[in-house]
Amino acid sequence: MSSGLGIVATGVVPDPARAAGPRPHLIVAADGSGDHDTVQAAVDAAPTARTEPFVIGVRPGTHRGQVIVPKTKPLLEFRGLGRRPEDVVIADDRANGTVKPDGTTWGTSGSASVTVDGAGFRAVNLTFANLFDEAAHPEITNRQAVAVLTRADRLVFDRVRFLGNQDTLYLNSSAAGVVARVFLRDSYVEGDVDFIFGRATAVFQRCRIHSLDRGSTPNGYVTAPSTDSTNPHGLLFDRCRFTSDAPAGTVFLGRPWHPSNDPNAIGQTVIRNSWIGAHVPDVAWSDFGTWPWEDARFREFRNFGPGALVSGNRPQLTAEEAATATAGAFLSGDDGWEPQRC
Hints:
By secondary structure, this protein is mainly β. Helices cover 8% and strands 31% of the residues. It is globular.
């Protein structure tokens, strides 16, 4: 289903015009009917140092196992070959505190079901998930469980679902001060605590952002940006829909994350022209430990819905600021990248 804004809820039948593309170079099928039976095997078989896209088609089903796209394999595309994003699921089930065979734990970054270090990566018409079951593992207290971790530049996610609980989507870069751009269109992200976080520059366009009800107060935080102070562009949500099954006023739009107490991580989240549900309280932003939300770069502009409000506790962009807080301004960089026009 989709809203009147044309926003994907949990997946739609692909637009044939946008689904068209070059024939996949490799096919992944869990039943052995393709070129490879795991996504990682297809990534391993892909050529290095490509200058043109290399398409890995993934047939319907749930494909389990951790996937890593290395720096040496740029311009890979994962294309779901089902009718809807729900038909193809790439998933794993580890958390920060899950114990590895050597007795250590995975950590937040290591928990990722999919890690993308290859520049120019693209994913279309599929689902990424971390299936870690919090209730089944009460012995694990560090429950961050990432579905996708990105650290590369010029990434596109088109009609993609990201499923998890805490720390679902980790949008990062290779190092502090390094800009890494990500464009997400007509996609769906769900989670509860800090489930969209990191220092990347990311634009969410016509996406549904769904906060799960974890039965606590507060119920969670949507974003936890750690944008470097030298980067004018962090997380931008444009014409999105913020929804939840949680009680009214129990979910914050975000809080400022300072990794290792880095004072230069001045997080930015901008939400504009978006529908916000009643799960968001009048004071929409929260402190993170000793770091006050007022010192972060949190702004809204022309939002609407029962959770939208203009007040002293809801900083707004001016019209002049809004003119430069656009997808083009966030993504263009020095190379004029314009994925939103494709």
